[in-house]
Amino acid sequence: MTITDAQKRVEREGGTLSTLREDGSRKWLRPRVSPGRFLSRRRAFAWLLIIIFTAIPYIRINGKPSILLDITRREFTFFGKTFLPTDTLLLALFIVSVFVSIFLMTALLGRVWCGWACPQTVYMEFLYRPLERLFTGAPGRKKNRLQSSSWGPILKFISYVIVSLFLAHTFLAYFVGIDRLVTWIGRSPLDHPTSFLVIVIVTALILFDFGFFREQLCIVACPYGRFQSVMLDRNSLIISYDPNRGEPRGRMRRARKTAPTPVDLTVSAPPKEPEPGDCIDCKMCVVTCPTGIDIRDGLQLECIGCAQCIDACDAVMDKIDRPRGLIRYSTQEAIDGKKTHLIRPRVVLYPLLLTVAVTAFIVVLVGKKPIDMTILREQGLPYVATGDGSMITNNIKIKLVNRLPHRQSFRITILGDSGATFVGSPDNAVTLEADPRVPVTLGVAISTPRGAFAPGGGQLTITLHVEGEGVSKEQSYRLLGPRGAANPG
Fold it and tell me: In the prediction, which pLDDT does 264 show?
């Protein structure tokens, strides 16, 4: 939206927000439903998303939940793979991939996420508002007996609470797991007051959002609408009103059949009025908008790309025998009569960055071993020499994490012919439980002949090998020793 358009809108509405009146009070919106091809597609897609969102916590892969974001235990499971806070590289690559995907999707399709897949839009427009229309009536339609009675608002609130409880439990299943959630539900709230309080708070927040805050979340709280000015360009697909076809707008006028007026050639003819455009100023695009904007003012941050204005305008065009598409998915360049360019710098750069990030993520993920090994040096002296100085001992700590879904025994050995051996235990066997949150730390001493250290360097690189049933991992470590390789004496 240009600055001029924004100024006209402020002068007309007396405010900067579509939900704000001149006196600063909130303008409550009850958008009118406009049936059409886009609404049917959005409804089918929305219910598909709701079913998927509800089913994911119940689906198990490799014995694990398909998605589990266990924040308290710092354990994150995605499609059978468990990630720990130490997997910083994987986490960074995943976050980069998500953000680049958002940038690419916005550059190509505008705010298609907001209007078609965002949970706020999906649940608001296809769950809560239908319940509201069921119990309190729909705008533009006559109310039935229930909707006109005092029971309508009460039943609406009860239905809101039930749906909010369901959504709260489903949402929490992603963070605590369906097994723990079922345990919470089956026990008395007195047995787990903290868990019960969490469910109550989440339910209250969902009820507040969809019952009161509503479209304000998209307009005021969500930053995505404000970011679109830097993610969109004039070739991005947005919902647009065609002023070249619609202006000048005005009410439809029927031609009156009257007797022809004699023409006086001595009087100059009055200037001919411009032909009216296809927009009849019915404002159906405004009353059906879930954020209350007038799409004819141009691109606005409140527009979530739901296409309700397109369905409404197409229905009006059908009635007045005009072609559809006065409001349509288009680009600013196309509306201005210019050619839309699909290939442009950001559309090339974003896929390249996304390909690099996803490829790196897959490579790191595939190369991730089911056992983690971290080697740390013990506090104190860097090394200790025997009485005659012929052997050098390094004290280290080996931290092991078992990522396998079952208990496993591992054996640690030293590879190569450096002469380095474990002091006291030749194989350092250890058994780890199937819990990546509980690492096992071994304190070991490695003894090495003094002559094995590089002359003048005082260092020796060895390779530690961890082996279990069908799994193994190798990791290098640098031992410290005296400078000079010759034995004393």
Answer: 52
Write b or e for each residue in 11-46: b if 16 or more Cβ atoms lie within 10 A of its Cβ, otherwise e: eebeeebbbbeeeeeeeebebbbbebebbeebeeeb
How far from chain centre, in Å, is Cα 58?
Answer: 21
Q: Alpha-carbon distance 379 to 394, whole Å? A: 11
Q: Would you state the structure tokens that stand for residue 25, as one six-digit string?
A: 């009070």
Between CA 123 and CA 47 the distance in angstroms is 9
% the chain with pLDDT above 90: 49
CA–CA distance, 407 with 339 (Å, rounded to integer) = 63
Distance of alpha carbon 269 from alpha carbon 319, whole angstroms: 34
CATH number for the region 371-480 comes to 2.60.40.10
Q: Are 464 and 400 in contact (CB under 8 A)?
A: no
Longest dimension (CA), the chain: 134
Annotated domain spans of the chain: 31-86+118-230, 371-480
pLDDT above 80 for 324:
yes
Burial of residue 179 (CB within 10 Å: 0-12, 13-18, 19+) is exposed
Q: How far apart are CA 397 and CA 47, in angstroms?
A: 53
Cβ(110)–Cβ(331) below 8 Å: no
Q: What is the DSSP letter of 56?
A: G
What's the pLDDT tens digit per position in 342-360?
899 999 999 999 999 999 9
Cβ count near 476 (within 10 Å) = 10
Q: Are 394 and 480 in contact (CB under 8 A)?
A: yes
Instruction: Give the distance from CA 19 to its chain's centroid.
Output: 26
pTM confidence score: 0.78
**Nearest Cα residue to 475 out of 464, 459, 484, 485:** 464
DSSP states of 377-427 as a string? Answer: EPSS-S-EE-TTS-EEEEEEEEEEEE-SSS-EEEEEEEESSS--EESS-SS
Give, to the nearest 10 degrees, the angle between helix 345-366 and helix 88-109. 150
Closest residue by Cα to residue 84 from 439, 406, 330: 439
Q: What is the Rg, in whole angstroms, of the alpha carbon atoms belonging to the chain?
A: 34
